[in-house]
Amino acid sequence: MNKSSWSRRSFCRYLAGGAAALAAPMNLHAGASPAKPWNFVFILVDDLGWSDLGCYGADLHETPYIDRFASQCTRFSDAYAASPVCTPTRASIMTGKHPARLHMTVWREDTLRPPNRNRKLITPQCVSDLPHDEFTIAEAMRTSGRQTAHIGKWHLGGASHYPETQGFDVNIGGTHWGAPNSFFYPYRGDEYYGEYRYVPHLEFGEPGEYLTDRLTDEALNVMEKMKDDPFYLQLAFHTVHSPIEGKPELVEYYQKKRKAGMHHKNATYAAMVHSLDENVGRVLQKIDSLGIADRTVVFLFSDNGGVANEIRGQFVTDNHPLRSGKGSLYEGGVREPLMVRWPGVTRAGAVCREPVCSIDFYPTMLEIAGIPGDADQNRRMDGISFASLLKDPGARLDREALYWHYPHYYPTTTPVSAIRKGDWKLLEYYEDGHLELYNLKDDLSEVNDLVQKNPGKAAALHAQLQNWRSQVNAQLPTPGSP
User: In the list 39, 119, 135, 274, which could disulfide-bond 296, CB 3.0-4.6 Å?
Assistant: First the structure.
């Protein structure tokens, strides 16, 4: 299995050896600070669905390393992406702001196309590049003396807005594209997207080399070079985004494992999740072997829900029990797996059910790091720190509601906005103005629309959603052809 074949064979050795070495730092008193400033490793997966991991209920997929990581840290059941697609969520992570406020509500390639005027609604023209006047989390980390590195998918602007211009000392692989042409070396060509694409800075590979492995190799090398001083490392895997390509031996393994009644049925996608898991394990083992586990905070998150529609004639994944998937504002499009390990603070195996969102990562990392950031950026942020939840997963955040705004079309949706307040969630669809109301505590799958039974609740949430859109100056679709 090439570079990641160590994983399953050495899993028991890792448990016995690496885990034992890691156990001591995990027993630090809550709130204890390391001798040196905290390192941060932010692992961002592309298109990973809420139920794609074993610790979130996957049936076909095997993810022992991530499951073990979940047992060491705080796992969130109600974590959300700020958008059901990639670029907006990534912008929210970098800035702490809602995509609607940034006017970055759709993926970058779509911002460069002329609007389709043959639909009922014409979608708004969005910002293509993350503005330089945003003070990013990388800039905040760098001004605190940390080394900063981005590896993998960027998708937040053209060459003049690449990671190097947004606070990163190192950029390996980050471009304006949202996906590679292939997951196999040399990762270039025009077969999949109809334009010539490539992933830079990954030269001198070998035939059969897999992109997820190679990006991890680069991340391990960066950590090796940065280990003596505090750092912020953002590892943004392209997996499990299309093209849906897995290692042949793993695809064969999962084809044989499939059984009737499983929610997950795509063996190639399962192979991609398998490789993701192996490489998360490699990152965690490297942190351990470098002797920096007691001063390294690790985040694992996905940028939007799993793809629930077909790609090239095959359904990609199933977000069961959540409804729909990527592009949609139903739970399957925005609820994400999230795990955080803050040594000496998070409790092993803790589960937090308080809703958090990708807009919250920026202020959370500022609080953990104990750095002020930029006063102006802080005043304009939409996110709030959830560091208190890492200390006490039963705590509550002082937040009235969460909001989403996706005034665009996707195979799973028409233009829509949504609000979650407590257990209640309201969606507003723009084509006909209809509302849908769900109680997530009783109906996680969003099958029982309660608008008719609770008109007062729906009206109140709708008014609050409209007020929020006005406050953030959200762009709205306009009438098009019937």
Answer: 39
